[in-house]
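Before a colleague's protein record goes any further, I have to sign it off. Thanks in advance; the entry in question is below:
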Amino acid sequence: MNPVLAIILLIAPILIAGAVAFSIKVNQTRLRLILAFSAAYLFSISIMHMLPEAFENDNVKLTGLFIVLGFILQVLMDTFSTGIEHGHVHLHSHSCQKQLPVGIIIGLFLHSFLEGLPIYDVNATESSNINYQLILGLDIHNLPITIAFVSLLKEHEKNFAKNIVLLLLFSVMTPLGYLASYALQSFGFQNYELYSQAAYSAVIGIFLHISTSILFETGEHHKYNIAKVFAMACGIISAYFIS
């Protein structure tokens, strides 16, 4: 039952946020507050929970290397996605008015797939092999991304059915990453423990890049008002108690 629950928890928030974003026009000020909260939460959970867990193994130097590689990989993916993982939508309107931005979509889908890889760990010492804290972090992270993605679809693709299909595809990318990891570990993929550590470390690097980018960009002229500071404080406090 655990795998089914994990998949539902990964898909449902995206579909709910997508349905809301299709129904109403999201205020950019509110979107920035959601981004500030999610960035602070991601950054905090990466530092307080994921980093200590990643460095529990004996391959400390290798872990550090893959964190850096994950950070750089996200920089490269930003080249294709133009920062939609950060909740950006305003950068795309002038460059792709007449056609759907395929590069952005592919970059976003790849990003989501990679984030699903470390969710399952066959060697976990806890009662469950599924990292529910990571799932919660991804759910919070995906809310503003989904709003940005739907806004992009509404702007560049008038076929509603096609937009729904693309939203459904986006919603299953992280579960597909989780299922790929689950299948490889369940069927005894050789040296998978090392691969799993590498994937987990790379996702930490991805989270650190995304969260710091949002935190630096979420304020006008890099200045923060009280509402954004409060949203970030709520993200930090949530990460502390949940992790």
